[in-house]
Amino acid sequence: MSEIEQNRIFDTWLGQYKALLFKVVRAYAATAMDQDDLFQEIVIQVWHSIPTFRQQSSSSTWIYRIALNTALKWVGKERKHAAAQESLDSIPAILQETKVQVDERLTWLYEAIYQLDEIDRSITLLLLDGFSYKEMATIVGISESNVGVRINRIKKQLITKAKQQDHYGI
Q1: Do residues 131 and 86 both lie within one domain?
Q2: What is the mean pLDDT of residues 112-140?
Q3: pLDDT tens across 8-58, in order?
Q4: SS3 per-residue string spanning the chain
Q5: Within this chain, do residues 58 and 115 fall inside the same structural domain, yes or no?
Q6: Where in this chain does the record put each RNA polymerase sigma-70 region domain (predicted)?
Q7: In a shared domain, residues 101 and 90
Q8: How far apart (Å, rounded) are the C-alpha atoms in residues 133 and 148?
């Protein structure tokens, strides 16, 4: 594959799946600075992975898998180096949310998703994006029945949390 072809595919995919990537980034990185870092990591990984795409799955499934795997690696790396990092809050973020009115229910939901373990977080994002149990199982690397069990537990956990906090009518 030529670099021109790789760049063309990358531009197309980035245009198509940018919102998907933002969802993954927001679920795995809490601060704007971390979100910038993770987004950059994912985009670089997507670009490097394009030549290995064998079209055995849809491009959205492929991108999701790359994004989730990169996010999981990034979370592990961040935990490992958290104590050694100094605050970079004074540096302006590259990816800043647009100044639209924030839906507090959506903010609550992302915070609740962020508190789930990595696999449950991935499954929740995939569920919200309408992936089938089979697709989720393929992306996350667990059985379809395990996906169903985890979804039921996640729903119960989120409902309990919402009832405890009684916020935003969720």
Answers
A1: no
A2: 89
A3: 999 999 999 998 899 899 888 888 889 999 999 999 999 999 999 988 888
A4: CCHHHHHHHHHHHHHHHHHHHHHHHHHHCCCHHHHHHHHHHHHHHHHHHHHHCCCCCCHHHHHHHHHHHHHHHHHHHHHHHCCCCCCCCCCCCCCCCCCCCCCHHHHHHHHHHHCCCHHHHHHHHHHHCCCCHHHHHHHHCCCHHHHHHHHHHHHHHHHHHHHHHCCCCC
A5: no
A6: 16-79
A7: no
A8: 7
Mean pLDDT to the nearest integer, 127-135: 90
Q: Retrieve residue 90's tokens.
A: 């004074």
State the DSSP code for 95: S
Contact (CB, 8 A) for 83 and 108: no
Q: In terms of pTM, does the model score above 0.70?
A: no
Which residues fall within 8 angstroms of residue 97, CB to CB, at 6 or more apart?
Answer: 32
Find the farthest-apart pair of alpha carbons in the chain and give their distance in angstroms, rounded: 55
For residue 96, pLDDT over 80 is answered with no
d(CA 102, CA 80): 32
Report the C-alpha gap between 166 and 105 in whole angstroms. Answer: 11
Domain boundary (52, 72, 94) is at: 94
Q: How far apart are CA 45 and CA 90, in angstroms?
A: 27
